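Let's practice the habit of predicting before peeking. Look at the sequence and jot down your guess about where helices and strands might fall. Then scroll down.
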Amino acid sequence: MRSCPLLSLLFLTGCSHMAHDEWHGQDKAQHFLASAMLSAAGNEFAQHQGVSQDRSATFGVMFSLTLGASKELWDSRPAGSGWSWKDFAWDVAGATTGYTVWQLAQN
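Done guessing? Here is the structure:
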């Protein structure tokens, strides 16, 4: 499984600066929408490069989640707002929604 190294990295980072945020808010909508658009754009980009539909789907979702995780790592620095698993959960929801919408548009 290719996502295991990324997931291992996320769980082993030991972020000491965690956010104390809510599940809802404007920033959660921004995480969701940005992840959905990045996932769909990554899918489309990969397909235009001649990649199979399955691999382009994987590329799009992983592209989106990698950027979401990178943003959370940036937030976890001492001057940041803290790592937020809630933000990342909205990133995952957005990435899967973007993938689904992109798949539906292909049919």
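How did you do? DSSP finds four helices and no strands in the chain.
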